[in-house]
Amino acid sequence: MDIIKMAFKNLFRNSRRSLLTSLSLLIAGFVVVVLHGYVTGFLKGVKNNIINWMSGHITIAKEEYFSRKIFIPQEEYIENLEEIEKKLKEFKYISFYTERLKSQGLIFKKDINKPVLIIGMDSEKEKKILELDKKIIKGIYDLKEGALIGKELSRSLNLNVGDTIIIIAKTVLGGLNGIKIKINGIINAGFSEFDKRLVIISISNMKKLLKMPEGAHEIVVLLKNENNINDFIKKFKLNGIIARDYIQELGTFSFYFKLATNIYYFIYFLIILLATFTVINTMTVAVFERLREIGTLKAIGMKDSEIFFLFGLEGIMLGTFGGVIGSILGWFTNIFLNLKGINVENIAKGMNIAIPYVIKFEANFHIVIFAIFLIIIICAIVSTIPALYAKKLSPQETLRQV
Amino acid sequence: MKFLILIFFSINADDILNKLREDRKIESSKFYAKIEIVKGKRILFKEFEGFSKGSDFYIVFKNPEDKDVKYLKIKNDLYIYIPDIDDVVRISGDMLKESFMGTDLSYEDLMQEDPLRYYKTLNFKDTIINGDSLYFMEIVDTTKRAPYYSINLFIEKKNILVKKEELFTKNGRKIKEIEILDYKKIKEKFYPVSYIMRDLRLKNSYTKVILEKIEIDIKLKDEIFKLEHLRK
Question: How far apart (Å, rounded) are the C-alpha atoms in residues A135 and A146?
């Protein structure tokens, strides 16, 4: 206990140096927590966009549809929706599901056209899964007689609420068909890929466009708990119809998703390791400054292990003090940036993945604990170098050097 | 007469290519075609009536699912009349690479005017396929304007008629195959009236086209090839 007190008091013998050393650990702790908040916030944003707009936790579709999904083969639709609904009732952990119809097509304004992704949606159900009604930035949320289009698409074709557009697409019978429809609303999908090419119409208008009798291309399912995804996929079996989770929708991005998370943990370790070099430096200087004191302490009976413990503890205290404050400051910053978000719309516009326009930092307290724990461990390890040196010194040798 | 000369005298690849180009030139035509489209287990049947004049054409679909869908090509533009909206749209850009009415043929394939003019012979030799002695010609796009980088042609020697075409991308991937099943001789020229086209990028997919009726070099009204005619 006396050694702990002694180590603590020693920190204030050169308070400026101790402060500067702690500051480097403060910055390291802050950077690690904020960087983690940014990375997890970014990845969560991408994941949410994919889950909400593309796949849900699980997408149910025909096997053939999945195998050529990149081309959106509209002829491969589920005909018997009742059979699927009956099957879905067996799973108690389903939170919500809705059907979607998809097609690639062209949107025309006079002689100008653009390729678009057309989605037929149930407006009432999509209020719950997508909160689509809240994404309207102009016009009204009404799919019955009109369409909703992405804000970038409206800008590029100079389209406005009330304008009538022509949409053409391939029918399920391989022909070509079109509909004339009024724009009821302009939406901010929240990411570039959809804002540039998304047209949303009602399911009935989509069926008319695709000349499709009954059915849907995809059933999007949300679960109460993501942990049930694998169980659902294993148990959901219908002839020619399969279920896939959002990870498969992410494709190669899911690999980078996992890789990025692991790489960043390595980067956090490096940041803290670099910062702790200041602890080695400070403590080594402290040992050389206090040679006479070490000699005296040893001469009056202080054991080598106590000397080692004293200097080791000083190093840990220096690092922990800065690390704790920095990590907690980082956590508060994450809370603030989670509420406010950082707008990266200009950067995200050029990307073809579902990067959200606003990145909301994740404020997980576990990273604060992780950062503090890592700082203490690394400080403890690096402090052993000067502490070991101090431990090995003999009283005669130290007193002779002064 | 020209092809007799080719047979009796020494024949070379350029002569053959020129003859093939010459045979494909039609002043005007009127035709009625049936298409069988096979996509995996699904089989679709379509019918259309068409007229062509120079490089322009006009097509009206007759099968119930696509009744009155009309296509009109004028020079480099392709227009479509869609009866459900009673309106005409012009197809352009990426859409031209899309399949024509679900067939293995793209709009771009349809739009090609004398496509062989872009190619030069790279390889020319005799070959035997299924007991038939044929010429084999590998032709390559030298202008970077053709939709396919190279084409392998298998040509019947007697009448210099293409039996099969294999279409390749620049990296050597075979993406389409056309097999001509039958020719009809009209006014000293042979015209393909039945052929199968396969888009090899799609599994179990082919399109069989049968020209049930065809009249060549007939008089056609100019009005047929005018935009206003599409709405009629």
Answer: 16
